[in-house]
Amino acid sequence: MKKNKLLSALAAAAIIAVCFALSACSRTSQLNPQGLKNCIVADTSTEYQTVEGFGASSCWWSQTVPDGSKSQIELAKALYSTDGIALSIYRYNIGGGSAELGADIYKDYKERRTETLFDASKYDKSKSAKENFGNTDNYDSTKDKNAIAFMERCVKQDNSSVKEIVLFSNSPHYLLTASGKTHGDYEYQNNLPEENYEAYSEYLIQYLYEMSVVRKLPVSAISPVNEPQHRWGGDKNSVQEGCHFDAENLAAFYNVFYRYLDSFNTRYAKKIKLSVLESGNYDTYKPAAILEYVYAMSEYDYFDKIDSLAVHSYGEPLSDEARNSFMYKLGAKWADKFSIEMSEVCHMESGLDKSMGSGLYLAQMMDKDMRLLGATSWSWWIGASGYSYNDGLVGWEFGARDGAVDTDIKRYSVMGQYSKYLQKGDVRIDAILDNAVNSVKRDISVSAYKRSDGTLIMIVTNTGKAHRLSVAGEYKDMQVTTTDDNCDITTVYGGKFRNYVNISAKSVTTIVLK
Q1: Contacts 24+ apart (CB under 8 A), 245-251
Q2: Counting beta carbons within 10 angstroms of the beta carbon of residue 269, is it exposed (0 to 12), middle (13 to 18) or buried (19 or more)?
Q3: Can you tell me the distance from the alpha carbon of 212 to that of 207, in angstroms, rounded to the nearest whole number?
Q4: Is 462 helix (H, G, I), strand (E, B) or coil?
Q5: CA distance linking residue 279 with residue 289, whole number of Å
Q6: pLDDT for position 19
Q7: Which of 70, 116, 151, 289 could make an SS bond with 97 (beta carbons 3.0 to 4.6 A apart)?
Q8: What are the DSSP E strand ranges found in 76-209?
Q9: What span, in angstroms and rounded, lies between the C-alpha atoms of 257 and 221?
Q10: What was the pLDDT predicted at 415?
Q11: How is residue 314 annotated by DSSP?
């Protein structure tokens, strides 16, 4: 039975509340007939979202990975292979060409400048922008070579875990913008003129053709716009590529681009979808801001073909209330239509916290986004970081050919507690803590997923002290894998099923039952 997503979080919360209120009674139930205390109970009959996958972005760092280097091999293995944390969604950035604009415009953040396949030296001013950007001879497939080579390494390496590639863009090419740069001259400038909607569409289609047809990479979606609500203009908002769109402008652009995408899919027998909104923080901008864009898109025919919203979360609160409020304000009308893709999540905190503190932040974000937002996919912002900031899953010195890849970062391992064990097609089901004492209720959160072959996966986040939990059900085999202060995706038990599991303090534990 599929549940209404808007009601799923509220229903689950109500069930948990009732169970907690009755916990002292050690009551029995159909799912917990023995009345086990502190018991994880999974209800396979109640289904929620279907898992799409887990990923990270290669933006702003993969272009510094030397092709053929030891660093390239080790980074690809750590992030995108079953020998590492087995991320399945690869997010590749379609650059706006800011690397060509010079230090007089972009003085800082050198790593945030991007290269583009379009060869600006071939731009013919006697022709229209659409003609220029629609001319395949104006593209050079050898450009952005390191970023593309790294992506291909991730896809083609032994034991690759990449199932889908999402192409996304922060800004149109600078030759298409009103400012002539990859950010606006002033705050909230609509930096893509309407007369260039088709030219930008041609530009995006050239990338689709290069990546999915020529290179035969598994491109599943394209996202032409990033955080359209943001200012993206003026001196204070020009540290990276970005393009603001008012709601009506964005909806109108999508209408143009969708025609191009539909034609491309028909011509090449593809099913590449349009990923929409890439909304800036869902809580910071408030659901009302997101709804403005949704309502604007609903005026066009392509809206019926859109079934998901991509949203971001940078330093968002860990509260249930923020997520429940977001889903409530989407309302049944939109919550039932759209699945939620968490396409960029980041701690947004200075320093380099390698401890379980940052790991548990990531864990709680994943747990709550999966349970309360019904997220079908979940991607951390960037795969690798070369500076002191809590945004990379791994550490690596940008540009180093033989640089060590630092996986001794707990958020890397915590991500693996999900990405190594949940597969595309797994379905989230009801999971509660039954007959639980207050300390367990305070510290423990659990989500559960079932696979078509009957496998059950439960992921337990513990923000407090160690606990011994019961496990209800009848299974043959059990595997328990943990990340905590002392372990990194370590199998702490594997063998015949037993109806209890020891959960270490401040940990994330994945339980696989067959």
Answers
A1: 245/190, 245/192, 246/188, 246/190, 247/292, 247/293, 247/295, 247/296, 248/296, 249/190, 249/192, 249/194, 250/225, 250/293, 250/296, 250/297, 251/293, 251/296, 251/297, 251/299, 251/300
A2: exposed
A3: 8
A4: strand
A5: 9
A6: 42
A7: 116
A8: 89-94, 164-169
A9: 13
A10: 98
A11: E
Give phi and psi for 230, each to the nearest 5.
-65, 160
What are the tokens at 480? 């328990």
- The alpha-carbon radius of gyration of the chain (Å, integer) is 23
CA 438, CA 501: separation in Å to the nearest integer? 18
Contact 144, 98 (CB under 8 A): no
Report residue 432's pLDDT band, with 50, 70 and 90 as the boundaries: very high
Distance CA(344)–CA(280), nearest Å, equals 9
Alpha carbon of 399 to those of 59, 245, 391, 409: distances in Å? 14, 34, 18, 20
Exposure string over 189-226, b if 16+ CB within 10 A, otherwise e: bbbbeeebbbbbbbbbbbbbbbbbeeeebebbbbbbbb
Please calculate the CA angle 494-498-499 and round it to the nearest 5 degrees.
Answer: 135
Helical H runs in 86-160?
129-134, 145-156
Closest CA to 98 of 70, 72, 125, 118: 118
The DSSP call for residue 406 is: B
CA distances from 129 to 2, 94, 194, 264 (A): 48, 18, 12, 20
Q: Please name the residue that has the structure tokens 């590492």.
A: 84
φ and ψ at residue 407, rounded to 5 degrees: -100, 5
Best CA proximity match to 37, nearest among 432, 458, 436: 436
Supply 236's token pair.
Answer: 């204070």
Structure tokens at 332: 């049944």
pLDDT tens for 199-238 read 999 999 999 999 999 999 999 999 999 999 999 998 887 7
How far apart CA 119 and CA 139 sit, in angstroms, is 5
